[in-house]
Amino acid sequence: MFSWINNQILKMEWLSDLVEKFVVNIFNLDINSRLGASIHFFIYDSIKIFILLSVLIFLISYVQSYFPPERTKKILGRFHGIGANTLAALLGTVTPFCSCSSIPLFIGFTSAGLPLGVTFSFLISSPLVDLASVILLASIFNWKIAIAYVIVGVILAVIGGTIIDKLHMEKYVEEFAYASNQLDSDIDELKVKDRIDFSKEQVKDIVKRVWKYVLIGVFIGSLIHNYIPENVINAILGNDKWYSVLIATIVGIPMYADIFGTLPIAEALVAKGVGLGTALSFMMAVTALSLPSMIMLSKVVKKKLLGIFVILVTVGIIIIGYTFNFISYLFI
Amino acid sequence: MEIKILGSGCKKCNELEENTKKALEEMGLVAEVIKVTDFKEIAKYGVMTTPALVIDEKVISKGKVLKKEEIKEMLSK
Predict the structure, then answer these.
(1) Which residues have CB under 8 Å from A190's CB, separation 6+?
(2) Chain B, 18-47: which have a CB under 8 Å from a chain A CB?
(3) Cβ–Cβ < 8 Å for A265, A220
(4) Closest approach of B36 to chain A, Cα-based (Å)
(5) Domain segments of chain B: what residues?
(6) pLDDT the model gives residue A137
(7) How much is the pLDDT for A186?
(8) Which candidate from A105, A176, A181 shows the least CB-CB separation from B48?
C-alpha cells in the first residue's frame, strides 16, 4: 500500500506513462531515442515538479503560518548553547523566509540578544533544508536520501553556527544591528481563513518566483540525460575522480537558483552515474550560498565574518559530498 | 497622515507602494508616501519581514503585500 502511494502519488508513475503515450503517439517518436527520451523527461519532470510544488507549498505554508519569525525569535531566546543552535536549525526549516527579508531578520535576531551562532545556524538551514524540497527529494530519489539530506543539512547548520559562536565574531557585525532599539512587535493573531489565504498567497508567490528556474533546471537535466555523453560527465564528475565533489561545489556556489530548479539537474547527473554525494553537494552549494545572498549579508556583517561563513559552509558541503559518495551504496 | 513603506526595494515592496497609492487616490486622501530602504531605519520598527506598511509611525502590516481593498480598510480606521 505504501509503495503504491509512493509510486503513483509521489513519483507519479501514471504521469510518466501518460507522457510516454503522448510522446509516442502524438510526436511519433521512439521513447528510447534521444529526442523522444529528452522530450519525455522535460514534459514529465516539469509537470511533476509544478504539481508537487503547488500542493506541497500550500500544505507547508499552512504549517509555517504558525511560525512567523517573531515567534521563532521568542522561542529561541529561551534556549542556550548547542540546544539553541539545534532548535534554530530546525526552526529554519519551517520559518517562512525569503532572501529579501534576510537582513531585517538578521537584525531582529541579533538585537533581541540571540547569540550570533544561533542566528547563523538559522541562516544556514533556512534556504538549505526546506520541507517542500525534502518531499521532492523523496519523489525524485527515495525517502532514505531525503531524510539523510535533512539530517546532514541540520548538522551542517548546527556545527557552522557553533563554530561562529566559538570564534567570537560579534565585533564583525555592523553596530547598527545591535544598537537598533527594537520594539517587540506583536505576532498577528490568525484565523483558519487567514492561514489558508496566506498559504494560497505563498503558492502564487513561490510559483511565480521559481518557475523559470524549474524550467531551466529541467531543460539542463534533459540535455544531461540524453545529449551530453556519459564519458564527458564521468571525466569531470565521475565517482572515481577525487575532485568531483570539489568542482560540483565550486561551480554551484555563485549560482542563484531555487532548490526546485537544481533537483532535476541532480536527478539527471545521478542517472548518468555521477555520485550521489557529488550531486547533493552541487544542490547544497547552489541553495545555501549565492552571490545575491552574500551581497545582502555584506550589508550587516563585515568581510571577515562573511568570509568565515562562506568558508565554513563550503567546507561543510564538500565533507558532506565525499561522505555521501562513500556511503551511497546504503541509499541507492 | 504619513505613510511609510519599509523594504529594501524588492519587487514586493514596489507592489505594496503601488497598491497604497491607488488606495489613497480612490479614497481621495492626500498623504505622503515615503519609501524606507535603509536597513537601519527598517530595523527601528522591529519589522523582521518586509515589505511592511507603516501609517503614522505604527506598523500596520509586515511580510505581505496588502491588497488595495485591505489598505482602504486600514486607512478608514
Answers:
(1) A65, A198
(2) 39-40, 42-47
(3) yes
(4) 13
(5) 2-75
(6) 86
(7) 61
(8) A105
**Considering the domain B2-75 in this protein, what is its CATH number?**
3.40.30.10
Taking Cα atoms as reference points, which of A229, A236, A226, A225 lies closest to residue A269?
A225
In the Cβ-directed half-sphere of A212, how many Cα atoms lie within 13 Å?
5
Contact with chain B for residue A107, Cβ under 8 A: yes
Higher pLDDT, A122 or A329: A122
- What ipTM describes this predicted complex? 0.73
* Catalytic one of B3, B5, B6, B13: B13
- The domain segmentation of chain A, as residue ranges, is 2-173+216-330
Three cell numbers at A106? 538578521
Element (H, E) at B36: strand B32-36
Cβ separation of A100 and B10 shorter than 8 Å?
yes
pLDDT at A282: 92
| B73 catalytic residue (yes or no) | no
Q: Is B65 a catalytic residue?
A: no
pLDDT in tens, A255-268: 877 777 888 898 89
Lookup: cell for A251: 561551480
